[in-house]
Amino acid sequence: MTAYVNGVPVPGDVEDAKLAVVRELLRQRAVEAGFLDPGAIDNEVVEAAIEKLLAQDVQVPTPSEAECQRYYEAHLEEFRSGDLVHARHILFQVTPSVNIAVIRARAEQALNELLADPERFAEMARELSNCPSGEQGGNLGQIGRGDMVPEFESALFRIDALGILPHLVKTRFGFHIVSVDRSIPGVDIPFEHAREQIAEALSATVEERALRQYIAILAGRAELLGVEIDAADTPLVQ
């Protein structure tokens, strides 16, 4: 599939084309703004020009002290040091070749069976899990924050997470049945120590939104053929 940006061809498959179109939109805008020679083809030169363009056109305000304080108070659970859990899981892996609805239904059935008979967890992990931990009854050992993918971690460290969780946990790997066998709370991190981290996170969120809006504006001004780009579908900032 070949997409076109103001008559310039941008080849690639459906997903690659979106990323390539965003880059071409930015390249053309960098040329228009005087940051890039129209004939430049060196990738490093083009990327440097795009960075200069974004630094000029996408302004991200620094979060205020009050904004950082509000975020801290609303997300106290994020600012703890040393939280630990001992957990087990059963993974129902999702791959491109599987029927997701069937896999999910099987995982739900297994979860309901375990909620009714928790003592069977190790047995069912050995039988059903697509994770090597299944050979150890699903045991993941001691887990700290940052050890797992975010969506799995958020389920492990919920305040009420103890025992077999009553719902499946969906991650990029598939569906998990999770048992939190022990939770060891950590120590609260003072706001003064967390402020820089909070400011960076808030700035990143604002920057993402600004980039999406900026690219949507560029796309709205351009003549696009073969692909659609909008603020909610911008691969540059996913």
Can you tell me about this structure?
- With 238 residues, the protein is α+β, with helices and mostly antiparallel strands.
- The protein has two domains: 2-64 and 193-237, no CATH class; 80-188, Roll (Chitinase A, domain 3), CATH 3.10.50.40.
- The chain is built from seven helices and ten strands.
- SS-based class: alpha+beta
Q: How many distinct beta strands?
A: 10
Distance between the termini: 22 Å
Number of domains: 2
| Multimeric state | single chain
Give the CATH topology of the largest domain: Chitinase A, domain 3
* Main CATH class of the largest domain: Alpha Beta
Shape: flat
What radius of gyration results from the CA coordinates? 24 Å
List unreliable stretches of 5+ residues.
231-238
Q: Which secondary structure elements does this structure contain, and how are they paired or packed?
A:
Layout (H helix, E strand, L loop, with lengths): L1 E4 L2 E4 L2 H19 L10 H15 L7 H10 L5 E2 L2 E10 L6 H17 L4 H8 L10 E6 L5 H7 L6 E2 L4 E3 L2 E11 L2 E2 L2 H31 L2 E2 L13
Antiparallel strand pairs: 1-2, 1-10, 3-9, 4-5, 4-8, 6-8, 7-8
Helix pairs in contact: 1-2, 3-7
